[in-house]
Amino acid sequence: MSQILTIADLKDLARRRVPKMFFDYADSGAWTESTYRANEEDFQKIKFRQRVLVDMDNRSLASTMIGEKVSMPVALAPTGMTGMQHADGEMLAAQAAQEFGVPFTLSTMSICSIEDVASATTKPFWFQLYVLRDKDFVFNLIDRAKAAKCSALVLTLDLQILGQRHKDIRNGLSAPPRLTLKNIVDMAIRPRWCAAMAGTKRRTFRNIVGHAKGVGDMASLASWTSEQFDPHLSWNDVAWIKERWGGKLILKGILDKEDALMAVKTGADAIIVSNHGGRQLDGASSSIMALEEIADAVGDTIEVHMDGGIRSGQDVLKALCLGAKGTYIGRPFLYGLGALGKEGVTKALEIIRKEMDITLALCGKRLVTDMGKDQLRR
Ligand SMILES: Cc1cc2nc3c(=O)[nH]c(=O)nc-3n(C[C@H](O)[C@H](O)[C@H](O)COP(=O)(O)O)c2cc1C
């Protein structure tokens, strides 16, 4: 690889360095992947107004998300099995985010545990919660996130049942990978990944193993996880979670304005307009196309964030123009991590920051917080 200038460059390098099973896990969507593709493609339909001869000195990308200062309004999204893109992946990504001044969100389905990430960082991170059937386990997770001083709980609403990703089934995805001949060959040609993985003890779901009743090893973990997503979840559950948590609450996975209005009633601090990166309902609208209607419907009653398909600083600014106060990136930081470890996560953030800064200036704005609908050409 000569120069890394774009998120796509990081993706190319990650494809070479991360075993196929885990690279595919990141780079896939549900079924035909039409929503996954639309998330990226629909950004291209939105155009900026170019303005000239405006004083562009002293620009700033600084903003806030749920009242927390951010160096730019781009958080790292919760992603499962991040510690399989690179050894200790969640700890490295959290450190990179902390140094950059943006929030890191740890997934329930992470490899490194809440406690691992807390020990690797000095500032609060956010924790993403899946509400599973085993409520004792869920209570315990909330309490562990509190004990680790997480400053926000991100409650994911769009995974009551699991969407299907064909690649994961074909690859026989598991963490750690099963030692079939195919997997051994695939890993052997990626010595960098193997060496780093050999040097860590973190190779399975450490938020779960040893914490959920009856889950002590891989076999029990696989059967536990497959039964745990809870189809009974309802809006009433948000109330007890909010109460038990007692801190800032963000509701993730809203794609419809009726649901957004329900979310406002819960008293949550923010919603994330999201279709889970196109990994759940294939055929759903892209996040960027759903954003404006939702932002208009809720107005100032709740903070609106969005994720899905952001691959550049321009994409971030388009989301801000259409009503998002903050955004998240999933795959862009995973590609960075798989390509270059912690340095790659920083690189992904730097690429996006530079693109945001230049785009802001060419739009004739100095402050990222000034980006609004008037900046788009319609
Ligand atoms: C590999 C992968 C794993 C994910 N795991 C989770 C998860 O555990 N919890 C969750 O709420 N969202 C999860 N998501 C969804 C992300 O939080 C986010 O909504 C999505 O990645 C945004 O789209 P983008 O990847 O195009 O930026 C995952 C996404 C990816 C790509």
Describe this structure in words.
With 378 residues, the protein is α/β, with parallel strands linked by helices. It has one domain (7-366): Alpha-Beta Barrel (TIM Barrel), CATH 3.20.20. Helices cover 43% and strands 11% of the residues. The strands form three sheets. The chain has an eight-stranded parallel sheet. A two-stranded antiparallel sheet has the order 1-12. A two-stranded antiparallel ribbon has the order 2-3. Helix 1 crosses helix 15 and helix 4 (89-100) packs across helix 5 (114-120). The mean pLDDT is 95. The site of flavin mononucleotide has 23 residues, from helix 2.
Sum this structure up briefly.
This protein is of the alpha/beta class and 378 residues long. It has 16 helices and 12 strands.
CATH class: Alpha Beta
Distance between the termini: 39 Å
- The tally of beta strands, per DSSP, is 12
Along the chain, the helix and strand elements come as HHHEEEEHEHEHEHHHHHEHEHEHEHHE
Pfam families: FMN_dh
GO biological process, one term: aerobic respiration
Protein name: L-lactate dehydrogenase (Cytochrome)
Organism: Mesorhizobium qingshengii
Fold topology:
Elements: H1 7-17, H2 20-26, H3 34-41, E1 47-48, E2 63-65, E3 68-70, E4 74-76, H4 89-100, E5 105-106, H5 114-120, E6 126-129, H6 135-147, E7 152-156, H7 166-171, H8 181-188, H9 191-198, H10 218-228, H11 235-245, E8 249-254, H12 257-265, E9 270-273, H13 287-298, E10 303-307, H14 313-321, E11 326-329, H15 331-340, H16 342-362, E12 376-377
Parallel strand pairs: 4-11, 5-6, 6-7, 7-8, 8-9, 9-10, 10-11
Antiparallel strand pairs: 1-12, 2-3
Helix pairs in contact: 1-15, 4-5, 4-16, 12-13, 14-16, 15-16
This protein binds flavin mononucleotide (FMN).
Flavin mononucleotide binds next to helix 2.
